[in-house]
Design brief:
- The protein has 336 residues and is α/β, with parallel strands linked by helices.
- It has 12 helices and 12 strands.
- It folds into 3 domains: 52 residues, lambda repressor-like DNA-binding domains (434 Repressor (Amino-terminal Domain), Orthogonal Bundle); 129 residues, Response regulator (Rossmann fold); 129 residues, Rossmann fold (3-Layer(aba) Sandwich), CATH 3.40.50.2300.
- Strands 2-1-3-4-5-11 form a 6-stranded parallel sheet, with helices on both faces. The protein has a 6-stranded mixed sheet with strand order 7-6-8-9-10-12, sandwiched between helices.
- It is elongated and about 80 Å long.
- The N and C termini lie far apart (71 Å).
- It comes from Actinoplanes italicus.
- GO terms for molecular function: DNA-binding transcription factor activity; transcription cis-regulatory region binding.
């Protein structure tokens, strides 16, 4: 005969073990203020010894919090989460949330149905806060979030406005680093493969390239818009070779696009870096797998996710954290 499952201890039993009142034990469990250190230690010790697990529904009613935060991405394809960039963001967010009692909900919110589900989730306070990343120009998500009035942290600044709380990488400085490196190698006919110019990151990295060229007294030598994918980078590189066959260097605004550019150059019989030097951005794993390996701009993508989550936790707790710009640096390999 199967043994009866072990009965879970009650809040009253935890309070009795700790030698405190039921209300005091409840305040500790709900992380309420104005609890003495001795009381908190006694209750936490009793919880550990007894294996007490708070009732999440009761806790939500008591604290008006769900214990859940959302990460929303304006995209429809679930395979997006396998993309190395987004995978590292998610790892970073999850790592930071492991230090808390919060759970992560991933939301794809590009289609009308996806946005409707997210709108309902926010309006019904189904989450305590939200993180948003990879927004494009005129994306409705910021308005949806603002109307809900929930704490929100942005990964990267949206086009046309600066949110109250955001974490970003130094995309402008990184793009200038990449372009300055190519100029320092003696390259003068430097082209650019941009990300989508409907995104702030695509615009800012392109502006960094332009600024570095202007400061060096050079004119931009051709630009093609990509989409941050390897296939998009290859297509953009072919277009640049057709329009500017004399180019001697390319700054691609992501490693995926740079890898596509290297492949297109090889197909065209152009050697890298002897004839055309290539620099990417992100320092993803693909940067070490191209032939030659990519010189690129490193940004700490996991740190981006970690800092977004930590900032959101602080906002939910009633704090006023400052927005954050993470540093970038050049990593030299064989492509430039």
């Amino acid at each position: 005969m199967a043994a009866n499952p072990r009965r879970q201890p009650t809040l009253d039993e935890v309070a009795e073990r700790a030698g405190v009142s039921r209300s005091a034990a409840s305040r500790v469990i709900n992380n309420a203020p104005h609890v003495s250190r001795a009381t908190r230690d006694a209750v936490e010790k009793a919880i550990r010894e007894m294996g007490y697990l708070p009732n999440r529904t009761a806790r939500a009613l008591a604290t008006q919090q769900t214990g859940i935060v959302a990460l929303a991405i304006p995209h429809d394809d679930p395979e997006l989460f396998a993309d190395p960039f987004f995978a590292q963001v998610i790892v970073g967010v999850s790592t930071a949330l492991e230090e808390t009692d919060l759970h992560l909900l991933l939301c794809l919110a590009s289609s009308g149905r996806g946005r409707s589900r997210l709108t309902n989730l926010l309006r019904t306070r189904g989450v305590d806060g939200i993180m948003l990343i990879a927004l494009r120009e005129n994306d409705p998500l910021p308005d949806i979030v603002e109307q809900a009035g929930l704490p929100a942290v942005y990964g990267g600044r949206p086009v046309h406005f600066e949110p109250r709380w955001y974490v970003d990488s130094d995309n402008l400085g990184g793009a200038r680093l990449a372009t300055d490196h190519l100029i320092g190698l003696g390259r003068r006919r430097i082209a650019s493969i941009t990300g989508q110019l409907s995104t702030e990151v695509g615009r800012v990295r392109y502006r960094g390239y332009q600024e570095a060229m202007i400061i060096a007294g050079l004119a931009p030598h051709g630009t093609a818009e990509g989409d941050f994918t390897e296939a998009g980078g290859a297509a953009a590189m072919r277009a640049l070779l057709e329009a500017h066959p004399d180019l001697d260097a390319v700054f691609a605004a992501s490693d995926n696009m740079a890898a596509g550019a290297v492949r297109a150059l090889a197909e065209a019989g152009r050697s890298v870096p002897d004839e055309v030097a290539v620099v990417g951005f992100d320092d993803l794993g693909i940067a070490e797998r191209t032939d030659p390996a990519l010189t690129t701009v490193h940004q700490s993508i996991q740190s981006l996710g970690q800092e977004m989550a930590r900032m959101l936790v602080a906002v939910i707790a009633g704090q006023e954290p400052a927005s954050l710009i993470l540093p970038t640096r050049l990593v030299q390999r064989g492509s430039a």
